[in-house]
Each structure stands twice: as C-alpha cells, then as structure tokens.
Queue: 2 jobs
Job 1
Amino acid sequence: MQKFGIAALVVLGASVALALTEHHGVDLAGIDHAVKPGDDFYRYANGAWIAKTVIPPDRASEGPGAILTEKTRERVRGLIEEAAKAHPKPGSDAQKVGDTYASYLDEAAIEAKGLRPLGPDLSRIGAIKDKAALSSYLGGTLRADVDALNSTNFHTDHVFGVWITQGFSNPDRNVPYLLQGGLGMPDRDYYIEQTPQMAKLREQFRGHIAAVLKLAKIADADKKAAAILALETGIAQSHVSRADSEDVHKADNPWKRADFAAKAPGMDWNAFFGAADLAAQDDFIVWHPSAVVGISKLAASQPLDVWKDYLTFHLLDHYSSVLPKAFVDERFAFYGTALSGTPQNQDRWKRAVDATDSALGEAVGKMYAARYFPASSKARIQAMVQELLAAYHARIEKLAWMSPKTKEKALAKLATLRIGVGYPDRWRDYSALQVVRGDALGNLMRAEMFEYRRNLAKLHGPVDRGEWAMVPQEVNAVNLPLANALNFPAAILQPPFFDPGADDAYNFGSIGATIGHEISHSFDDQGSQFDAEGRLLNWWTPQDFAHFQVASAALARQFDAYRPFPDLAVNGKQTLSENIADVAGLSASHDAYLLSLHGKPAPVIDGLTGDQRFFLAYTQSWRQKIRDAALRQRIKTDGHAPAMYRGDTVRNLDAWYPAFDVKPGEALYLAPPDRIQIW
C-alpha cells in the first residue's frame, strides 16, 4: 500500500493468508483440487477455505488477515488492562492509555451525560450569524488528515482536511496541503452517480441524517435532512474523482496565503486561517483546488441556517461513538449495515481498543512491540529486506529497455530507501495530551486537537524522515514516497504473513511479496515520479518513461477486464499503483527466493515443489470472503483491486506456468508477450 499521508488505511486492501494453526507453511486443506490452477488459481488455492468460511456478523469481510487483526486487538486489550491494574503514575502513558480505554467502556456515564458534553460546540454553531463566523467555525474545526492519498474524502465533519509534510518541490521543508472533505458518504460518486443502487443509498443517508437530528430533538428533521443532503451533493460536485486525486501532478498546486481570496472567493479566509492557527502561514499546496473553490462558493451562496444544520448533524455523527447508545446504533445502521452489509456492530471493548489506538497509538505500540515482537523476527525480516533490495538491484540492472541514465537514478533511489521494521526508532511524546477518566468525549476531542497541534508544529521544525506512518500494532505495511521510506509494523510480521516455522518458499511468497510490493511502490506510476530525496521530479528519459507508460496501460487494461458484478468492473487506472506493486513485488520476491537457494535444488515439502509453495503462499495471502455491499464500496473507493484478482497476479510470471502445468486455452493463460513485467 502506498501512502502520501501519515497513518493507516485497510489491511493491505484485503484480508490475507491462512488459518492461525500450528501447521507451518501452505494451507493444504484450503486448496480446491476440483479447480484447474490455470482456469482460476485464486479458487484453486482457496476454494475449500472459502466454502467452509463464514463471515462473522460484526465484520464486512473475513480472512485470516482479519483473524490476525482480531488476535492483535485481543493482545492490545490485555496490555491496556494490565497497565491500568498496575496503578500507573498520574500523567504517564500507561495512565493515559488505561483511562482512555476505561472512559470509552463506561457506557453508563456516557448515557447519563447525554448530549451535555457537546453543549458548548452546539452553542458555537447556533451563534453563527454571518459568513465570517461560519468561516471561523470551519477553520476552527480543521484537523490533520492522516491519509491524504488513500482517502478522497476527509473526516465527515470537516469540509477541509490538512496534511502537513514535506513539500513536493522542496522536501527539506514542511508545508500544509489542503484537502477536500465534507461528505458523509464515502465518495463523490455516491452523490452524483445515477444508478438504482446509489439512489437507494442516498435515500438511506437522508434517512440517517433525519434520524440523528431527531435523536437530538431537533425540529423539522426531515426537511433539514433533505437540505443537508442537497448541500453535500453540491460539495460532492466540486470534488475530484479517486483517480484524479491520486494524480500528484494535479495535486501540485502551490498557493500563497493571499491567493485564497482571489482564487476561491466566498469564504472569509482571514477568519478561516485565523481560527485554524494558520494565519502566519504563507505557503500552501492545494491538493484539490476544485473543492476549495466550490466549497468557498457554497459558503457564500447557501443559507446560513442550512450550513448550521449541516454542521450540527456532522458534529453529532462524528462523535456518536461516545454519545448515548441510540446514536451509536443509528450510525452503525447506516455505515455498518447499509454501506457495508455488516449485520452486527463490534463489541464495545473492540471499539474501545481502536479508540485508544487512535488517540495514543505509539504509546500502545511501545507496549505491544516490547511484548510481541522478538529480536529474532526483526533480524530475519531485516535480512529478507536486504535480499529483496538485492533482487530489485539486479532486476533494474538487467532491464533491457531502460537507459543507463535512468538506471543510475533508479538505483540511487533504491539505495537511499529508509526501511523501518517493527517500530520507530523514536517514540512519540504524549506528555501534552490530557486524558480525564470518565470524559470519553472530551478525551476524543483532545486527542484530535493534540494530533492537529503536533502536525502544526512540523511547520516550524526540520523534516523528520524517520517519522512512522503506522503504529506497531497495525496489520499493514506502507511506502511513503515523499520520505522515500517504508514501514513494516510488528503486527504484520507474524504468522500467517511471516511464519518463522515455515520455509523460505512460503515466507518469500507471503511476507516477501509484501516487502517487494512496498519497495516497488517507489517505482510505480506514482512513486516513480519522486526522486531519491522525495522531490516530485521527472528523472526518466522520455523514451524510458514512454515504455513504462505503455506497460502500465497494458496492466490497467488487464484489470479493467475483471468484473465481479454485472454492473460494476474494477477500475484499472484507479488500482494501477497497487497492481504494479503486486506484479513487481511478486517478481522480485521470486528472484530473492531463488537467490536464497544458493544454487541448490528446492526441497519438496508436503508434496509441493518450492515454486508451488511460493505461488500458493502468495495467493493464499489474498484469500478473502467479503459481503457484496462492502465489495461494491471498495471497488468505488479503494486503490486496491479486489482480493481474488490480486491473487491471480501470478499469471504475469513465467515461473508460474511450469509450476502448475498451465496450458494455452486455460482461462488465466497469457501468451509470453502478454505477461506484464514492468520492473
């Protein structure tokens, strides 16, 4: 997964790998031998597992990767409860972690308080009397976006988000990037696409808005809900698409502070930036200028009362998790069931763990890494990383189509990759974050403000290229193009992703392909546009880049042909970065696996050759069972292709064909010239 932001997304776009049992290596029982590998390798590798797997009622999808996430959450719960029982020192990280968790769990206290904790914020909305006051309120609720590229819509109760990191053209200085936001549904298409399915979701969303307003005893809820939906539709019409949002050249829009009034009239920008504590900031990058312009126009053209109703709804909806149970249930009915098809909300303790992770992620991560990430695992992963880097180096040197000049730049970028394994070198300081036991809503608000102020502080200090984008207890991995860095959190570096008891064929097919995937993001359609220092700079010769684009377009067409529903296909352009990373990562990991044999023949284990174990481990790492509603949502909003098509990436590697005796005429067969190899 590639990120241009500073935190998390999905579990590698899908759930992964095999059951958490004592068996090491390939899940033999999960294979469906009735399916020919060449016709549907994903179903061959996973068909028996799919047939017997049931999605738990509190999840939108299931897979051993999701099981690993649950296991990690249970471990974190134990660590938090241990810390709380130890009577930690007041003001310590352990005290803050324990009190955040306990406060979230205290439903009786939350119920007794009702909406009183939101009283000051509701009063501020009610006091908005003119455009300047509206702009000031919007600026005062600006918050730090933690995932700029992978989220086309920022947090629901903020019309803009800000992401603070090094600049596109000057990676030695941090700048604020302004991002589109303000939508309650996942993406602009949910508002503007004219299909029966989207029309139904819009009506359900309107009903959700009205229900939230009614719970707060706000009059004329149905009428106000219709007006709020109309306002959000106007906001959505100003948003760019997911594919356009990923185009960094369209995002590279430097604006001076004085430009906003001229380029985006309607908003009182002095009031906005003053309330956002950005009045003294002169340089910005506007990632989504159409949204900034469009929302500014709406600030001037739409009635203040509609804006106030919109802000009231989003305030209530955003903090519903720490409001009385009726608000929790109503939010889940729309976001959990209507949007994702999930019938049952997660247990309160699971949500409490997630809330604590969100507020004090590295404080929890420090405890997690100390308990569950042994030095032996870190050393072995670091060794695998070096083997993958060596494989990439060799692949780049052998590229017949790449000129020496471009190769030199590519190898320099590879040599300067900053790779973090397990946990960061420096832990985050939470001393300025106040946590009050029994104040669940206040704790959440203060955590959001702490994170915002932590990010604002970056504007006045040096760039920290060692900052992590993920916490150690996250089951994920990431490439950060602007920092030319990779993060592999501790939680993904355990079975089934990395199995210390399995052989190299299995581990290179599973975690090795993941490591290769993240390395390759530095050279995909997006990462390839950044140099070794993270500067947005074209380091390709025109001929080399033209070849790269032709190969990328062919891969996009391959994925365009995948259609999980009659009315909905995969978007090859939207998923291109991840698809390039899958092909390149798997290819490099196979090379690294062969190098690990040191010229010796691979052993046969469980009746499988080394190549068979390698490819099965890879495709089993993408096994998943997902609800239709959730799959539809991911296709619309996710940069990753659905799991079953990622698992069939093997069809682009020559070595897969003899390993499973794949012949012409079989469904997945590609003639050698049609097998996509970019790196």
Job 2
Amino acid sequence: MRRILQFTAIFAIIAFFTFASSARAITNCRAVAVFPIQTGKNGDTTAKPTTHPDTGKLKTKVLKEVTVNGKRVLIIQHVDRAVIKVENNDVFKGSNLEEVLEKVPGISFDGNNNLMINGSRSVKIQINGKDVIFDSSSIPALLKSIQSASIKDIEIINPSAKQDAQSSNKILNINTVHSTTNGYSFSSGASYSQGHYPQYGLNLFAQAKINKLSLQFFSFANRSNEYSTSNSTIDYFNQGGTLSNNGHSLNDKKSLFNKFDLTYNLDSKTSLGLSAGGNMLRAGDNGTSLYQFQKSGQTDSTSRNTNASRVDFSYFVYNFYVKRSLDSSGQALDFNLDFNRATNTKGDYYDNVITSESVAAPVPLSQEILNSTKRSTISIPAVRIDYTKPFAKNNGKIEAGIKYAHLTDDESNEFLNSPASSFRYKEDIFAQYISVLYEKGLSGIQAGLRGENTNDDEMVNSSQSARKNYYELFPSISLQQKISKDKDMTVSLNYRRRIQRPNFLALSPFIYYTSPYEAFRGDQGIKPTTYDDFSTSISWKALYVNFAYSILNNGISSVPLLVDSGQTVLNQYVNIDRQVYKSLNISYRFTIRNINFDPNISTEFSSYKTIINNQAVEKNITNFVANLSAYYKINDNSRVEMRSFYEPHVQTLSSTLNHKESVTLRYIRTMYKGRLSLRITAEDIFNTNKESGTYQLLNYNGRFSNFFDNRKIGVSLTYSIKKGQKAALHNNSQGNSENSDRINN
C-alpha cells in the first residue's frame, strides 16, 4: 500500500508540472468564447450561438480558440440497466475496453484481474445483445482487444425474467458503433509486451452497410506466456508427517476469437439475421515440482515431479433469427434458433521420481508415470420465441416468451492407460416467462416471473445411473426512483431469484488427477444451487454506493479431503446447505488540479456451515479490494493514466491470504484526427503480485505461497476509419444466453 501511495504522489507531481506548462500555452490565446451545451436524446452536444439583443440577428466573430464548458453525463440510469456513453467521449478516446471499464463507477478488478460489478464476479459479457463465446481464461485478452473506437455505449443490465434463470448476476453488454448508410467503419490494432516472456495480440473490427444488408465482423488473436512459482506445506494429523513442495510453472496460451453477424431487412417490418462465432484455445502448462515428505522432523523421501498439461478447447455457436414488427407502435415477434457445440480435450502427464534420503546417499526407490486424458463434447440446440408489446404511450412494454433447449454431454476419461470410462449427460429445459417494464418521469419499475422445467438423465459406462425432474419459479423485480428534479440522485432496489446447475466436472463420478498428490471427483447426486439476490444502490453526482445480499441454497463447492491411501488430497464436490453472501461497493470520482481520480472499494463477506464425513465444517470469508484509477489530460490528444489495486487481507477460519498489490502506468496518444492511437504501458512495475496463506480442514492443515510474474512493458497501435452517415441500429435479437453459461461455468 505504501508503494501505491508513493507512486500516486509521483504521478500527481508529474501531472502538475505538465499542467503548468500547458496552462502557460493557453494563456497566450487572444480570445476565448464559452458556449453552453445542449444535450439531445442521443447524447449529442451542439454549441449554441448568441444573438444581438437589439436586432436578433446572429453575430459572427472569428476566434482563435473556442473552449466549450458543459456537463456530459457519464452514466444514464434506467430501471433495467445503466448506460455508459463511450462514442465521442474524450475520457475514453484511444482506450481499450478494460481501460474504459476502470473509469465506470461500480466496476472494478480484483487481485487476479477478475472483472467485478458491484463487488460480484458473476458477470456475463455480450456484444450487441449476443453472448461472447470464449473460455473464461481469455477474458483479460478479450477486454484488451476491443477498442473504444468500436464502442457506441456499454450497458450494465439487471437480468429480468426474459433472461434465462441460469445466468449471471449482471450482464455487461457492449454495443458497437452505429451502422452507416452505404458506408463502413473499420478498426484494427496490434500489441506487444515484454516481461519475463513476450506477449502479443492482434484485433480487428469491421462493419459495413449496403442498402438493406448489414455486416459486422470482430476478431482477435492473442499469445501469452505466464510464469509463476509456488510453495506449499501440508501437515497430516493421522500420519505424523509433512509434505512440502517447491515448484515453478510456465503456461503458454494461444487464443483466437471470431464473431460474424449479418442482417438483411426484407422491408420496414421484417428482418433476418445470421450469426456465427467461435473461440479456440490452445494452452500448454509445463512445470517442475520438488516434493519432500518428512516424518519426525527428518526427510523420509523426495519426489521430483515433471509435469506437462495440454488443453485443446473449441467452442462454436450459430444463430438464425427472424424479427417481425406487427404494427407501428413497436409490437413485435422474435424467433431464434441456436446451435452451440464445444469440444474440450485435456491431457496431463506426470513423471514422478521418488528417492530415499533415509540412508547416507539418496537412492532411487521408484518411478511413477501418471497419464490421464479427459475428453468432452457438448451440443446444445435451442429454439426461442419472444413477443413484445409497448403500452402507455411507449412508457412501458410487456414481454412474454417460451424457450426449449436440449443439452448433451459425452465425456470420457482415461487414466494410466486403462480402458476409458464414459459419462453421458442429457438435459432438457422448457421455459416460459412474462415481464413488464414501466418508466416515466422520476420513477420506474420492472417485474417478471419465469418458470423452468428441467429433466436430466445421467449414464455411466452406458448404464443408467440417475434421473432428475424439477420445476422452479424465478421471480424478479427492480424499482428505481430519482429523488431530485435535476435527476442527480437515483435510488434503486432489485430482487431476483436464479439458479446455477452443476457443471459436468462436478457431476462426473471419476477421479481426475492434477498431480500425484491432488485429484478431483464429482458426485452425481449434486443438486443445483439457487440464489436469492437482493441489492440496493444510491448514486448521487460522483458518489456511487451499492449493497448486495444473497442467500445460496445447495451451494456447490470442492472440499479437500485426505484419502485413505495416504498423501493424496482428493477435492470432492459437495453441496453446502445454506450460504450467506454480503458485499459493499463504494466509488467516488473527484478532481484535484485537473487530475481525475476514480477510487473504488469492494468488500465481501460470506459464511457457511456444513457436515462432511460426519464432521462439522464452518467457513467465514472476509475480502477487501481497493482499486484506484487516475488520469491526467495533457492536451486534446494525449493523457497519462494509472491503475493500481491493493488486496490486503482475505481471512477465513480455514485460510488467510496476505496482501497483493500492483501498479500499472500508461501513456495514450491519438493522432491524425483521432484515427490512430498509441498506447505505452508498464504493468505491475513493483513486481508485487504475490499471495500466501494457511488453511486447516478435517485431518490436515497446510500453508502456501504463490508468486505471479506479471511485470511487462508494452506498446499497442490502433487505426480506425469511418465512412458514411450514421443510421439507427436495428434492434437485433438477443439469442439464447443460457447456452454459453452451461459450458463456461
């Protein structure tokens, strides 16, 4: 924390002297005119000229420089969503999506660079209302690849009954730039950074409109190498021994993401759409670990483990939709047909050489070679029909619809070259919903009810093993009230019930080894988790406060247990009867001598009690994350930015995580009328991305420490062009959002 405060002071001094030199240049201007700003419905701003008081005619003056003073609202609050205007906003010029989100109240990143909204990590990302198809480890690369030149606005959506019950707590939807009338927009960029190992990426966004046909394409490719070291110690109560580990790992990741959308307007009332997208990930993890097992304080044996892990993941989705406007009031019918397919192959190889140190010279005792392969193929066809009808002079709307989705997962596991074990899972979901939204003046309400009937069948080695059938109701309601006439204070209340069905690793009964001393096993009896989410938020000028309270029933967690064979820890998936989660998020934007500061503080508390192997287990979690973003505008074309986080302590009854902190500095400059942007970054400049802790559970306890080498110096260039007149975006269909949740969770 001390380093962050010191660096913030240095940043302020540099910005102050830069500001002083810029101020001297401004004072040399001969004339300055100040115009008020008029903000239209689309957020556009126009200068309003003055008239002569006697004749009423416009007075014309030639000025050397014009300074426009006005207030641009960063966030527009609606009862169902908050909208952040990005296009034509100088605050975001030349930034990527990650840098844009740093400046949005309520949005922050934790010490592991996980995106959080109002303190919650349960976030789904969409582009133009369609789910982004990606592996979760590719999120940081995705956020860095989308450029602000391609973004019209960002929506933080409170999921309603229209969204699937199995969806995230919040939806982050990125709407791309306006369509153009017989024109196009194009943005392309490249980045390179050098740390312990190099990292580089390419991104492309293109959009075109020709008469009734609209095309859009987005793609990014990323290559990274992540280096880390780890140390751990486990004390076994019933063995009287201690297992210690020293290791290092290098993870090489290659990811490719593509998304293509085509829309054709048959006439003013009917449009057809086709979307295709995919994400491919190739990752290799190579490491070496040195295990030592001690008894009575003396080394009994040593294991040198060399491991190699390979992941080959691909995910493709295809969507076809028809949207039909029934009348001029906005009454419409929407038909969606989706097909999702994902394949995942993960292979692990361990060469474990064990030597004895109980004699004068170590001698080889044995050599263990563990070889396991896990393959999974998931297919999800789905169909959905939605109906929308406005009422009350378009101040409200009613939405209703039905959906059917069929999911199949074929999984096989091979271990020690033994015959493959198979696990087949089938799931059918039939859903119905109705939702009502009304917003007028200072008040707004959205309420809805969704019902989902679920049937699933599970088969192990071609034999029927389990069947489940259940029906759940999921109500939701959001209320919003703007207190003052200036609408600068808004109070919101939200409640939503949702579900998290178990992923396939949690259901699979097979043991899956991640090292000779650690393995995971699922349970076919795992029940889905239901959430009752409550939240309230207050925004007043630059202050934003959000409090969330959630009750989890049948929470799914992996609990580490010691197996009878001795030193192997088996992480068993279990249901936790009831868990309470509370979080508080506070952000406040302020300016000191033209330096803009955006501090954000998130705290979370969670607790649960459960019985495992006839033993009571209690866990309480307290987490605190502080983020600070700051930027100084040198001139209209360049600025300096800083981002830092401090995660001082995570304390539970079973573990303690010591502090993590990091500071990133960047310089952003735009050229050639904003078409070309240059970004230079220095990440984790103090090299403090570390974690350590202790844990205790049942018949063993342990200690751990990890270090992640995230130091990097990088440069990126982005070029954007646009041709054609702006035209309104067509209200594209949303698609079937649950499909990606079932694969990514």
